[in-house]
Design goal:
By secondary structure, the chain is of the alpha+beta class. The protein is built from 8 helices and 13 strands. Strands 1-2-6-3-7 form a 5-stranded mixed β-sheet, with helices on both faces. The protein has a 4-stranded antiparallel β-sheet with strand order 10-12-8-13, with helices on one face. It is elongated and about 90 Å long. The N terminus is likely disordered.
Length: about 375
């Protein structure tokens, strides 16, 4: 049947569902510039053919991708379990960086280890003209003991001094990938393998970045200060991911900020030590620290707008070594997270105010003792 454009209609007569409708006034020309009644016999058939070809190409690429994932998954799972069983703390990811660098070199990447920081990793794969895409993963683990009972569970212990703030040179800490960076690294490597395998489907440059010391901050900053995007191709687009508690196979995306800025602080309340039987002679930093922990939560629940994310968490509270002695200081470690500069400013100012107010409590000054002092300083800042 012959198909024509009609002045009295805004769509083609008998147009197939897959053909785009032509909207507008009755006198508007068809999309290709023909006169309204000019014969376009077979035009929609050619359009359908293009759609079917594109769909077929996409389906073939998707099917090929599925096959490659099935082929490579067993080996990637082995890499994941190896990384899981051998975690390393920030700036000490020597084995991890070496392992991933070897895998990238096998794929044909130009690999640099130690750029800006001793264990930082950068890989570049060039595949003709096109955009530069960055894929980033973290490398480090946490000072935690794994209690999963898995065959690949970490039993690694390292000197406690590898974690900032620990000064006991005789102590050791367990290390575990409790934040999922082992999964991130295996996924990062798998993405690199698949993209190289399917390089005939794309053109451009891949920039793979392994960030050290993400948990304690400093790794990304060191790489940027060393000129990461000056000495290597500057990415047009960057991708990263983070596992969460959703069911396996579910992927979550959203507009705007997905994760928050992270600031970490060390807070010290300095008091006056005394025997536990004579608290009236002390300025008890434990009482003051405990009061701070309680009061600071009122900032989050009563000063911050509840419509905007923000949280302050005290993750470490350390004071004296004995139960019958009041120490002369208490040390707290905090993390503060926010998603906007306004919320970050509010929480930071409030945290400083609450710390100073607690340290200068009138009930301490009335005991004929000097007021204790609170020292608050940023240990590290990480923005994402």
């Amino acid at each position: 049947m012959e198909k024509k454009w009609h002045r009295s209609s805004s769509v083609r007569e008998n147009a197939p569902v897959s053909a785009p409708a032509h909207h507008g006034s009755a006198n508007r020309r068809p999309p290709d510039g023909r006169e309204p009644n000019e014969d376009v016999t077979g035009e929609h058939d050619r359009f359908d053919a293009v759609l079917q070809l594109s769909a077929g190409t996409a389906y073939a690429a998707s099917a090929r991708l599925d096959r490659l994932i099935d082929q490579k998954y067993p080996e990637l799972e082995k890499v994941y379990k190896e990384l899981h069983a051998n975690p390393e703390l920030g700036f000490h990811e020597t084995r991890t960086a070496k392992r991933l660098a070897a895998e990238l070199e096998k794929l044909g990447f130009e690999v640099t280890v130690g750029f800006g920081a001793g264990t930082a990793l950068v890989g570049v794969f060039r595949n003709g003209d096109g955009p530069t895409i960055m894929l980033r993963t973290e490398l480090d683990a946490l000072p935690m003991e794994e209690k999963t009972g898995l065959d690949c569970a970490s039993r690694v212990q390292v000197p406690a001094t590898q974690w900032p703030g620990n000064t006991d040179e005789t102590a050791k800490v367990f290390v575990a990938h409790s934040c999922g960076h082992d999964i991130h690294m295996a996924s990062w490597l798998g993405a690199a393998q698949l993209l190289v395998e399917m390089k005939d489907n794309w053109h451009g440059t891949l920039l793979l970045v392994g960030e050290p010391a993400e948990e304690i901050g400093g790794g990304a900053t060191a790489m940027l200060k060393a000129g990461l995007f000056e000495k290597f191709p500057k990415p047009d687009f960057g991708f990263a991911m983070h596992v969460n508690g959703d069911p396996a196979g579910k992927i979550t995306v959203k507009d705007g900020a997905f994760s928050g800025n992270s600031d970490t602080f060390d807070l010290t309340f300095k008091g006056r030590g005394a025997h536990g039987s004579a608290p009236h002679l002390s300025i008890d930093p434990i009482v003051q620290g405990a009061r701070f922990v309680t009061d600071i939560q009122a900032v989050v629940s009563r000063e911050k707008d509840p419509r905007g994310p923000g949280v302050i968490t005290v993750g470490s509270f350390q004071a004296g070594p004995a139960g019958n002695i009041i120490p002369d200081q208490a040390k707290l470690k905090l993390t503060m997270r926010s998603t906007t500069p306004e919320t970050r400013k509010l929480l930071l100012e409030a945290m400083q105010r609450v710390a100073k107010t607690t340290a200068q409590s009138p009930w301490r000054r009335n005991r004929n003792c000097c007021a204790s002092a609170a020292a608050l300083w940023p240990a590290r800042t990480r923005q994402s």
